[in-house]
Amino acid sequence: MAKTVRTSGNYTIKTGSGAGGSNAIFLDSQRTVVEGNLEVKGTQTSVDSVSLQVEDNFIIVARNNSGPADIDAGMMVERGAANNAAFYWNEGDDVFKAVTTTTSAGSNNAITDTALAKVRVGEPSHASDAATRNYVDSQISGGGFSIGFRGDDSAVVAVTSGNSVHIAGATNLSTAATEADTVTITLDSDLTNITSITSDASNGDLTLKANGTGDIVVNDTLTFSGAASTPTASAVTKLYNKTAGGGGTGLYFNNSNISSGTEGELISKSKATALAIALG
């Protein structure tokens, strides 16, 4: 038989000394319904049920934190003998963290991280989505990233020992800069498999420079292509190839400090012998 208890004012059920005592009130029913607001005051609220269903759109934690206060807040997973797991807002770092922790429990105001935990997410489809390892690996292998190296300070891009940075192109390799800086590439070994070196500057020089008192050494045949025109003489010696003249070599030079910059042709052995005989 249904029964209703109605009062005209507040109604209190108290056992023993109330909240300061050790007595309890048990509601033993298949379903207990609270029609109005439910407010629980105490240090701990435990829910021992198979599943918890919440109709609210948002769950607010750290509700009485009027801040700014260094209080971490989030969700803690009790894992028994294993380290607890937590997904929480770290107030000191201003970031969300997924961690395991050996010393922190749900009653802590701060989480002591033992180790970062893995977070598995779906493949990103938006610029602000978290990237999966598979996505990053596929983008790198497919050449989908533009990586910029820029400095003018002590910052470096470090490569872990055993790993390498590969820069490759189908037909060429180029560098581009938006500032008037010098790009320096230092190699710890010899260059191999190089078939062509070309300056991309219009009418620009290509300089080969040895270190200190070292020399530029050519260990094989040095070939000169035919010069389109005689180069302008300057205070350096320029060596070039043209149609052979009186010297019989076709290899010419000029220097503004020699013969007032008039070009000269290197003479061949046979021509030199012939001249020696002719001149007696």
What is the H-and-E element order? Answer: EEEEHEEEH
Task: State mean pLDDT (0 to 100 scale).
Answer: 84
Tally of helical runs: 2
Q: Spans of 5+ residues with little confidence (pLDDT < 50)?
A: none
Helix content: under 10%
**Strand adjacency order, main sheet:** 1-2-3-4
**Largest beta-sheet characterization:** 4 strands, antiparallel
Number of strands: 7
Radius of gyration: 42 Å
Strand content: 5-15%
The assigned structural class equals: little secondary structure
Q: Termini, distance in Å? A: 148 Å
The coarse overall form would be rod-shaped
Task: Describe this protein's structure.
- This protein is low in regular secondary structure and 280 residues long.
- Among the domains are: 81 residues, no CATH class; 58 residues, no CATH class.
- The protein contains two helices and seven strands.
- The strands form two sheets. It has a four-stranded antiparallel sheet, with no helix packed on it.
- A hairpin with a 4-residue loop joins strand 2 and strand 3.
- The N and C termini lie far apart (148 Å).
